[in-house]
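Case 402 in the screening queue. Each case pairs one protein sequence with one candidate compound; here the compound is flavin-adenine dinucleotide. For every case the pipeline is the same: read the inputs, emit a complex structure as tokens, and attach any notable structural observations.

Predict complex for case 402.
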Amino acid sequence: MSLPAEVDVLVIGAGPAGLAAATTLASVASVLVLDRENAAGGIPRHCGHYPFGLREFHRLMKGPDYARALVDRAVKAGVRVATGVNVVELEPGPRVGVTSDAGRSYIRSKLVLIATGVRESSRAQRLIGGDKPGGVLATGALQGMVYLEGRRPFRRPVILGTELVSFSAIMTCAHAGIRPVAMVEPNPIVTARWPTGLYPWLKGIPLHLSTTIKRIEGRSRVERVVLEGPAGETVIETDGVIVSGRFLPESTLLNGSHIERDPATGGPVVDSFGRCTDPAYFAAGNILRPVETAGWSWAEGKAIGKAMRLALENGLPERDSSRLKLVGDALAWAVPQQVGPDADAALGRLQLRVTRPVRGRLSMRVDGVEVASRRISTRPERRILMSLPESSGPVEIVLEEE
Ligand SMILES: Cc1cc2nc3c(=O)[nH]c(=O)nc-3n(C[C@H](O)[C@H](O)[C@H](O)COP(=O)(O)OP(=O)(O)OC[C@H]3O[C@@H](n4cnc5c(N)ncnc54)[C@H](O)[C@@H]3O)c2cc1C
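Case 402 output:
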């Protein structure tokens, strides 16, 4: 497919968020979705397991079927999807620079949606010491090998992490006949919400809480890991390590661009319409924060697609530049970063996360006056939601720990 020089809306990333927004916009605008992979569908394309699709198609689907259905729905709605196209530059205008087999070119549009998802942090970023043998994989790499290449990289790995995606790793292992020998969690409790946390138990995988991987040992392949937990050091014989969690928004594109990044989320600063600091650019899905489910990202893409439609048709209200302030060192981040009493808000609730397991009182103050509060008991990588303020003024979110 040759790329047009101009469209109404350009969507970067053909995952659930980008495809949902594109489908929502197709009846009022010419929409082009670009993805650097050789097929559209985003991460679910690599997840050959259930459960996807309940919210979107009202049935249980495996990831690849779900991804195909999202693409089909978008194409039927009139969206053009181009794969093998890497977006490398964002400019005011908007104008974006892309590279593909056809070389380097630029595309102009009225609006751009950034929906580039997340990437996983590496073993080095998780500060795991020891040898550097083969067999240490992030979940995404494991899924690519198992579902796309039909390979089995190991038989009895250790899984590091207990958030949503580590359970995707267990399902991927089950599909390939791989039997994890341990699941390791640095925190004292499983991160994923009940009942997901029962899954390792159902699968007979020993769970090591308050434990870290101190060293990975082995020459060419992983042979064992040394765990450090409440009982001291334990050695587990294993042939692989799956490193899950600590996701980062795939926001490389923002480097050197004019669009402001939030150092706390790693994604762009947005308002409650999903608008970036250049209001011709919007963002949706896991680029906004690590990491949510496909259904959540899809719903968010759809809502922000509606906001973009409003922007094209009638224009959206101006946003003042005041930023939400977080008070309390256990608060990790909040999205959207610019909030107000927006009747048509696409991001209808404020989403927060913490840096460590905490209990305490979470409150919202507008112009110094408390407008909402509640007790929380939560842990990192778990979603906390708060209603948007109903009045205007500088907003503070305060966490007082017990
Ligand atoms: C390893 C892993 C496993 C997961 N498993 C599950 C699961 O089992 N169930 C679940 O509900 N959620 C799972 N998730 C969460 C997942 O992120 C969401 O399901 C969902 O895919 C997020 O949708 P998205 O549209 O925001 O991003 P993505 O699905 O990540 O799509 C982003 C797209 O943007 C493209 N892209 C990125 N940068 C560029 C660029 N510069 N130019 C062009 N294209 C670009 C990428 O190629 C990708 O196709 C998993 C996440 C990870 C990392």
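Case 402 observations:
- The CA atoms of residues 310 and 316 lie 6 Å apart.
- The two ends are 58 Å apart (CA to CA).
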